[in-house]
Amino acid sequence: SSAMSQHILRDAIRQGAPLYNRGDFEGCAKVYAQAAACALEKTSGKAAQRLESGIREAADSPSADAAAWALRFAFDDVLEQTSNAPGPSPVPSPTPAPSPAISVTGEIRDAIS
Q1: In which band, very low, low, confident or very high, does the pLDDT at 103 lie, cut at 50, 70 and 90?
Q2: Is 6 helix (H, G, I), strand (E, B) or coil?
Q3: Alpha carbon distance 64, 40 (integer Å)
Q4: Under 8 Å between Cβ of 55 and 21
Q5: Burial class of 90 by CB neighbour count within 10 A (0 to 12, 13 to 18, 19+)
Q6: CA 63: distance to chain centroid?
Q7: Which residues contact 20 (CB under 8 A, 6 or more apart)?
Q8: Whether the predicted pLDDT of 87 surpasses 50
Q9: In this predicted model, what pLDDT tens digit does every residue of 27-36 receive, in sequence order?
Q10: Residue of 17, 26, 32 whose CA lies nearest to 100
């Protein structure tokens, strides 16, 4: 359901954003990837398409930092599409920071398979 997928995505952001802000880009990307896979099972239509594109972007990302952002942008778009309330969702945003190129493609693919 839409409400369940919103809960999954908001919970992932609440867990992942603090990890990201502490510099654990890989941990954040893993939390987001697992949540994206779970939410995708409960989502349909445009929201599902947006999650799928975010998952693909994350899997093809050159770093954990980029993967986390690809998924976060997808989450924000899905939450906006499925929310009845106007405006941004009240969840913390990660602070952009440079990161070394860390490959999380395998972990993301494992998390979503």
Answers
A1: very low
A2: helix
A3: 21
A4: no
A5: exposed
A6: 14
A7: 28, 68, 94, 95
A8: no
A9: 999 999 999 9
A10: 26
Q: Is the pLDDT of residue 37 over 80?
A: yes
DSSP letter (8 states) at residue 96: P
Cα–Cα distance measured from residue 70 to residue 91, given in angstroms and rounded to the nearest whole number = 17
Q: What angle do CA 69, 74, 76 make, to 5 degrees?
A: 95
Residue 108 backbone dihedrals phi, psi, to 5 degrees = -65, -45
Ranges assigned E (strand) in 1-113: none
CA distance 40 to 31: 14
The angle formed by the CA atoms of residues 99, 50 and 35, to the nearest 5 degrees, is 60
DSSP-assigned letters across all residues of 69-80? HHHHHHHHHHHH
